[in-house]
Amino acid sequence: PVTAGSIVVPYGHVIGNEKWRGSEVAQRLQGKVRLIFEDGLGLVDFHLSNRTCILLISEADLVAGDEFKRRLVRFRNASSLRGIVIVEKTQISDQYYLGVQKLVVLELGMVLLPVANQGEASQLIIQLVSFCVREQSRDRGANPFLRKQRAQPAEPAVLQTVQQIPGVGKTKALLLLQQFGSIHQLCNVSINELEEVVGQTVAQQIYSF
Amino acid sequence: AGISRGPVEQSPSLCVLADSREICSGPRVISCLRAEHGLRVQVCPLGTSDYIVSNRLAVDRLLQSELQSPGNRNKLSQRLQRLQGSFERICVIVETDRVRPGETSRFFQRTQYYDGVLSALVQAGIRILFSSCQEETAALLKDLALLEHRKDAAIQVPTEPEGHRRDILSFYLSIPNLSYGAALNLCHSFGSVAAVANSSVPALAAGARLSRAQAEELHRFLRHDFDLQLLPQPLPAKGKS
Questions:
Q1: How much is the ipTM here?
Q2: pLDDT tens digits, A103-152
Q3: Which of B74, B76, B91, B123 to mutate to test the interface with A (most CBs of A within 10 A)?
Q4: CB spacing of B84 vs A147 below 8 angstroms
Q5: Coiled-coil intervals in this record (chain B) (predicted)?
Q6: Which end of chain B, C or N, has fewer beta carbons within 10 A?
């Protein structure tokens, strides 16, 4: 039963795989987030929202061999959800980390976050949930790393660019732009037209540029 | 397993651009890329990112301690937002801080703030890799460059323009939201600035290896009709215009 399909997660809730009931992660999550257990989540350990879910890889999984890799690949092939892989990176499992990172991030294109133990995993999940909630509430401005679209006048930048032409300083750049309007037009004027605005030498320089 | 396919024959052609500040802050990353992985590393004043690995991917190298301290938040978010303006893909490599000789290994105390930063990066679609030292960072950069090469996005133009082309490069570099790689591509693909200015959006996208949206932005910029009134007034000329 490979269930990796989407599942409806009530706003602000986390749906956990039945197998985590009573575990340290679950205990620490309870009280911080609204956690519901469900059977038959298949490959997924926790669903944070309708499109984000978590696959938890323990130290024991890493040491035991390649079974967890098959699980990740199966998930990737079966699901279009955004999968976040949380892996227990301890002194014992540290040696496997680079290989896992290469598989998960570079080959499967998923997100991989290391934690030292289940306690850290639960803290991380709480933060991830809070960002999922914000995303759902369309409060995207709250994310400091998302680019905000600000309409800024292009004038200072255009002026700056024209000044990169050899022989053109601020004064000449202003004159040229007032006369010809845009960089596109400036590129298409004849040398005679340039001479009317700036001197012969500079006109020649601009023209040959 | 696919990545390790024939790196020996491919690596020499691979090119990575490194910011000049990395000579001081990550010398072993650069020397390792050159010596061990055989990549061509061109050091240039990138300004925006630490490394440019392909036509569309920028990589920033961050120390774990930088992600731990809330004091860095503004600087980091401004930097990453600026990167998102000029690159399709962004990756950060979180590197464990170096333990200086004599210093007892500090225990890494994971904070709620740190988890919050990671969550925000994930949600913003920024790729995160973890590295324990500069050598590992170099290996990750090589893997990324190889991956981008396989996806046909590798930097394949000469990275050191000479003479007149240097002036043209700095002209392109002054265009907002145009990456160093895109500026190099423009230098290489178009015979003159006039040819760039007269190009259509698809031609710009193909020549500079830009996404459609970025090519549109460049096209708009080149044809932007200058209006003196919109220029922020210098201080002496303050007042109603």
A1: 0.87
A2: 999 999 999 999 999 999 999 999 999 888 877 676 656 677 877 666 67
A3: B123
A4: yes
A5: none
A6: N
